[in-house]
Amino acid sequence: MIGIARSRMTQHRAHERGFALVIALSVMAALLVGAVILLRVVSIERDVAVSSVSAEASFFAADAAINVALDTIGPDVHSCASARTPIGGGYTYQVVNTPPHTSCFAGTQRVAGYSVASGTGYNTSGYVFYTYAFTGLGTGPRSAQRTIDARAVYGPIAQ
């Protein structure tokens, strides 16, 4: 009788070993699926971060174009457009004329009696302000592109 009970216990343990193997394989498969999902999420987050950095840097490149254009305007300047200028890291900037204008010069505005500083008196012939309109274009890697439209007034210039 003792021999029969031992053989039944041995058979019962053999079935438990197979069941434990199935559970272990199932847990390992679940961990593998979880790891793959986490790697995919991290990859997407990295792509979003890189695209965000490229977009922001393209904006700063467009801002550089605006600053270059502001440094070049004056009463005798009528064209602000420039060639695409590389600034490193795959980024470039360019000043373009704002459509529909063929130049960045948008016109003049005359203001009579405008005083440059207090105590300088009244100028009967007035002053002129030159208006310019241009666009700064910044490009970068991953097809990042930003534009900034700007309008600048230069003056007063005594007449």
Describe this structure in a few short sentences:
With 159 residues, the protein is an alpha+beta fold. It has one helix at residues 2-72; strands at 85-88, 91-97, 105-111, 127-139, 145-158.
Q: How would you describe the overall organization of this protein?
A:
By secondary structure, this protein is of the alpha+beta class. The chain has one domain (about 1-159). It has 1 helix and 5 strands. The chain has one helix at about 1-70; strands at about 85-90, 90-95, 105-110, 125-140, 145-159. Strands 1, 2, 3, 4 and 5 form a 5-stranded antiparallel beta sheet that branches. A hairpin with a 2-residue loop joins β1 (about 85-90) and β2 (about 90-95). The mean pLDDT is about 85.
Shape by Cα distribution: rod-shaped
Distance between the termini: 125 Å
What portion of residues belong to β-strands? Answer: 25-35%
Number of strands: 5
What's the SSE pattern? HEEEEE
What's the Cα radius of gyration?
Answer: 36 Å
What's the tally of helices?
1
Largest sheet: 5 strands, antiparallel
Uncertain ranges:
none
Mean pLDDT: 83
> Percentage of helical residues?
40-55%
Structural class: alpha+beta
Number of domains: 1
- Give the assembly state of these chains: single chain
Which helices and strands, and how do they pair?
Blueprint: H1 2-72, E1 85-88, E2 91-97, E3 105-111, E4 127-139, E5 145-158
Antiparallel strand pairs: 1-2, 2-4, 3-4, 4-5
